[in-house]
């Protein structure tokens, strides 16, 4: 009997996908607004290094807690996870919008990252819930496509808003969009089937918690916002006067009241999340968060055009290694580890490898095409970004095509050729000289092929991993795929940059008195090196993608063989 998906399920996926696109857009929306945001928290143009937490804070939230959110998505309703993630995203957007100090802004960006990152595995797991095996290709392609579309529209939306308003409006609109999407999820979704954990909460506890939440929002919001009409008022300005020599807005009477309200809210909320927390390996989640967070801060805080490791990298890398080792010990010793022992099996393993490689290939192009453009044809960041647009538009097109092809072809048959095309395109790009971007046809064709190729691999990777992962662990498996891709981006770019910088400095130091043209040529050599490394990674991913399975997920199997038995990774 053919499985049909209800219109409510399709509407729910569409809403969740738009939320994923919103979070993805927020990753790139600060590209054009970063300078204005720095000015908003009192940082000048010469303090760019101090502003890196604005970006790395978002990435830290996006990556570090993903495995925990994935695990929670397997224990409670996917819709509740989506709503909680959107709530964090909205709160983070509001905190960022009213921030006048760097720590407050970084906190807001971190909360945005946690909420935005959690939307992706929850949405992928939702696809596995609502669509049967063999029918997931198109919806997975849609999710992958909208995620990539977000990276395209993010800078464009940022530029449009900045043309008519200031940077704060970007985040207010983010928060408003998050609220609208949450209401749509409530309207489209159905009551979850998972059992409620813990004893029922009485109505008066809900009332107290709601009152504490309202007090936190109002009082803490006023403390951070500090409107001039109140702070300059003789009658109402007293609570906004800082204590002693402090200048932080939280070090005021109203700021302290707000923090007390927040503490009360957290204490009251324990009754809601403690029954769930008892079933989760909290120690394992903490160790993974430390390992991933240290890794992100090591590389994401660096300038990829000039350095590989951030300022604290040589302290954070050993911390990441120790935390990872402790998690491995915890994973073996715990009765119910965060990542269950039967999750990373079968085609999940090659899917993780391919996902990491795809991340490296994407970020190499996203970072170094603008670098090449600024070196050779323009000084404008905006014009350099327009060159990159040829690649960014092709990726979601490839993602949609990859999902559609999965209806009749196996994941390996779709992903491997696509990655091969991307690898060959990157290989050709590694030969580009300083005048390569002067023409229009060749760069457009190569960037489009590279984008289509990596896009084709997105849905097959997710489909193969969700097929072989246990149904009770689809959230964790989806989160691991996202983590692998993001780690591939952060670490892969750093390693390729290290090799490129080595060749750059070697070239410059070999010249007795280098001219500007010779330094530019050395910069082009660095970009060529990065593209060559990305080509090798993409070709490696094409080879590994052959292990994703040559038969379509919904195709019938030979009598006596399970679908798992016919996968090449297990043969």
Summarize the structure.
This protein has 571 residues and is mainly alpha-helical.
Indicate the mean pLDDT: 85
Low-confidence stretches: 556-571
Q: What is the end-to-end distance?
A: 30 Å
Report the count of strand segments.
Answer: 0
Strand content: under 5%
Task: Describe it.
The chain is 73% helix and 0% strand. The protein is mainly alpha-helical. Helix 1 packs antiparallel against helix 8, helix 6 crosses helix 18 and helix 18 packs antiparallel against helix 19. Mean pLDDT is 85; it is low at 556-571.
Key features of this structure:
disordered C terminus; mainly alpha; 571 residues; 0% strand
Secondary structure layout:
Elements: H1 7-28, H2 30-40, H3 52-64, H4 66-75, H5 78-98, H6 102-130, H7 137-164, H8 167-188, H9 203-225, H10 228-231, H11 253-277, H12 282-300, H13 313-333, H14 348-376, H15 381-405, H16 411-429, H17 441-468, H18 474-509, H19 516-545
Helix pairs in contact: 1-6, 1-7, 1-8, 2-7, 3-6, 3-12, 4-6, 4-18, 5-6, 5-8, 6-7, 6-18, 7-15, 7-17, 9-11, 12-13, 12-18, 14-15, 14-17, 14-18, 14-19, 15-17, 16-17, 16-19, 17-18, 18-19
């Amino acid at each position: 009997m053919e499985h049909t998906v209800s219109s409510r399920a399709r509407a729910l996926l569409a809403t969740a996908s738009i939320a994923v696109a919103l979070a993805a857009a927020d990753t790139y929306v600060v590209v054009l607004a970063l300078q204005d945001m720095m000015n908003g928290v009192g940082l000048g143009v010469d303090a760019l290094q101090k502003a890196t937490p604005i970006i790395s804070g978002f990435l830290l939230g996006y990556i570090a807690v993903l495995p925990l959110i994935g695990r929670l998505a397997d224990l409670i309703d996917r819709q509740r996870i989506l709503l909680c993630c959107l709530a964090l995203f909205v709160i983070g957007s509001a905190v960022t919008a009213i921030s006048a100090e760097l720590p407050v802004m970084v906190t807001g960006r971190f909360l945005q990252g946690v909420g935005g990152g959690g939307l992706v595995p929850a949405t992928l797991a939702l696809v596995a819930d609502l669509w049967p095996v063999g029918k997931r290709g198109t919806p997975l392609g849609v999710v992958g496509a909208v995620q990539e579309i977000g990276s395209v529209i993010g800078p464009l939306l940022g530029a449009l808003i900045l043309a008519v308003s200031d940077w704060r409006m970007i985040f207010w609109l983010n928060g408003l969009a998050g609220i609208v999407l949450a209401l749509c999820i409530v309207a489209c979704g159905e009551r979850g089937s998972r059992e409620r954990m813990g004893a029922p909460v009485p109505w008066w506890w809900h009332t107290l918690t709601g009152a504490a939440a309202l007090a936190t929002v109002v009082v803490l919001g006023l403390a951070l916002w500090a409107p001039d009409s109140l702070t300059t008022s003789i009658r109402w300005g007293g609570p906004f006067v800082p204590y002693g020599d402090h200048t932080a807005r939280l070090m005021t009477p109203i700021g302290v009241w707000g923090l007390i309200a927040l503490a009360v809210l957290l204490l009251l909320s324990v009754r809601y999340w403690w029954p769930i927390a008892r079933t989760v390996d909290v120690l394992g989640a903490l160790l993974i968060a430390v390992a991933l967070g240290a890794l992100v801060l090591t590389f994401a805080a660096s300038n990829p055009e000039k350095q590989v490791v951030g300022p604290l990298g040589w302290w954070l890398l050993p911390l990441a290694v120790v935390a990872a080792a402790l998690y491995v010990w915890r994973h073996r010793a715990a009765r119910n580890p965060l990542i269950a022992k039967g999750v990373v099996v079968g085609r999940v393993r090659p899917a993780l490898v391919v996902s990491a490689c795809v991340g490296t290939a994407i970020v190499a192009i996203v970072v170094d095409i603008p670098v090449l453009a600024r070196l050779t044809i323009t000084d404008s960041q905006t014009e350099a970004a327009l060159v990159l647009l040829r690649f960014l538009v092709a990726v979601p097109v490839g993602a949609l095509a990859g999902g559609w092809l999965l209806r009749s072809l196996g994941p390996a048959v779709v992903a491997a050729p696509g990655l091969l095309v991307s690898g060959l395109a990157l290989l050709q790009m590694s030969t580009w000289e300083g005048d390569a971007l002067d023409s229009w046809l060749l760069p457009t064709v190569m960037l489009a092929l590279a984008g289509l190729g990596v896009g084709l691999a997105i849905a097959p990777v997710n489909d193969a991993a969700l097929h072989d992962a246990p149904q009770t662990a689809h959230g964790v498996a989806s989160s691991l795929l996202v983590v692998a891709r993001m780690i591939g981006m952060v670490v892969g770019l750093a390693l390729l940059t290290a090799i490129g910088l080595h060749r750059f400095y070697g070239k410059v130091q070999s010249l007795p008195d280098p001219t500007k043209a010779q330094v530019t040529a050395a910069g082009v050599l660095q970009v060529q090196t990065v593209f060559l490394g990305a080509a090798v990674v993409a070709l490696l991913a094409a080879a590994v993608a052959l292990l994703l399975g040559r038969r379509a997920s919904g195709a019938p199997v030979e009598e006596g063989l399970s679908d798992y038995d016919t996968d090449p990774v297990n043969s």
